[in-house]
Amino acid sequence: MGLITGLLTLPLAPVRGVAWVAEVIAEEADRELAQARSPERALAELEAARATGEITDEQFQERYGELLDQLIVQRAREGGAG
Amino acid sequence: MAVSQSQNRYMGGPSPSGLADVLDLILDKGLVIDVYVRVSLVGIELLTIDARIVVASVDTYLRFAEAVGRLNIDDDKREGLPELMQDITSGAASSKTRGVLDAAGEKLGEVFSSDDEEEEREPARERPRRRRRERERDE
Amino acid sequence: MTSRDETRAGHDTTSTYVYGVVPAPPVPPQAADASAQARLGVGQEHAGEVRFVVHGALAAAVSDVPTGWNEATRADAEAHERVLSELLARQTVVPMRFGVVIDSDEEVQRELLERYADRLEEILERLDGCVQMSVKAYYAEDALLREALARRPELKRRADELSQEPVERTQAERIALGRDVAEAVEQQRERDQRALVEPLMAHVRDIRLTAPAGEREAVNAQVLVERRKRPALDDVVRGLAAAHELRLGFRYVGPLPPYSFSDRALESSEAA
């Protein structure tokens, strides 16, 4: 991702604890990226798209089912579920 | 940017609920008792909280800055927005709100600053699902 | 609870799934919606028929599930909601959270209905004649950002200036700008939230607000409303939707069992 690369190469020299800051930023960016791509986030976006009429109810239902299944599979794989 | 007309189906009244509308309520609200076994709904029970937005982060800030740069603000003058902005900037809306907020008294105060709300607003730094579980066990 | 494991003879392989509590005697379903299929509860191929366990002034809607069953899916969440919605159509109901399984009917009677009788009656009284409605509104694309910037034009100016500069040398400024924008956006969201919630207040008995679940969410309000006041609330929401048509999309759903207003744990310490 361009954004993360950009962040990692920040000219942070004047800042104290450069390594730490860079690490935190990178971690943060990774976490955010994972979150932005997560089915949960996609579900929230999907709801917004339906409410504002950008997609139809049918399109919503179809995609919602896919995302939910994806989520269940993902969680089951993580093994932490249940 | 206008909301399309097709969403106006609610104009006839509220929509019947689908699973999407109630899933977070079913899994996260409702009565629980201390003596019970909870069926594990594979995966889904963890669904709702992870989607909470996290605003306070560098990535979000950069994204916002970028979005502002991209936004062509000139077409703000079009379609309905002036009316809205007028409403907002005149302060009419907010002062009216304040009046009713006062009238509604503690109730609304609670609404905007309840413990529940605070908890939900808390950025999901630590794994929220784990926290949720612990809390449930505590109950 | 382990001390009470000895359940009814012959029923040691089923447990009791609980949907919610209604006032006794429970109102039976209409003949029209009483088809055998429609009366099945959670558990899919193991699903039992929904029935009631009654104790005093309270009745719990329950169905059998195999003991140890723990593989619920979407379909079961849907069944939970369907059963409760049907109950709600006939009477006031205190919905349980999804997934409450108790060892036996006797346990339901003793550990839920008898033990927490006072609390349950109190909740039923509070919810009497009420349903939950869900009011959510979402921003049209870019609407939130546009409106936040309209109030803080200097932010847009700063962004335009920064866009002339090389990214590598203005990273800190960009982050600072983003932080200010984020703040302006959240202030705008909060203003909207108040403006949207305020007109609802006169028509509802109670309200719960949930923090936005996505960047485009303006408000997520769960309200408790008396059935007879529903038309007035419907009008208000319709009015809000029309007034904000160009910037917000509404999702107004219900009537729902009052999940958000039954949201508490009954703990042993509460038992009299």
Structure characterization notes:
The complex is a heterotrimer of chains A (82), B (139) and C (272). With 82 residues, chain A is mainly alpha-helical. Chain A has helices spanning 2-8, 18-37, 39-51, 57-78. In chain A, helix 1 (2-8) runs antiparallel to helix 2 (18-37). The longest helix of chain A has 22 residues, at 57-78. Mean pLDDT of chain A is 67; it is low at 1-16. Chain B is an all-alpha fold. In chain B, 51% of the residues lie in helices and 3% in strands. With 272 residues, chain C is α+β, with helices and mostly antiparallel strands. In chain C, strands 1, 2, 3, 4 and 5 form a 5-stranded antiparallel sheet that branches. In chain C, strand 7 and strand 8 form a beta hairpin. Chain C is elongated and about 75 Å long. Chains in contact: A-B, A-C, B-C.
Query: Overall 3D geometry of chain A?
Result: flat
State the separation between the terminal residues of chain A, measured CA to CA: 33 Å
Binned, the helix content of chain B reads 40-55%
Largest sheet of chain A: none
Largest sheet of chain B: none
Approximately what portion of the residues of chain B adopt beta-strand conformation? Answer: under 5%
**Quaternary class:** heterotrimer
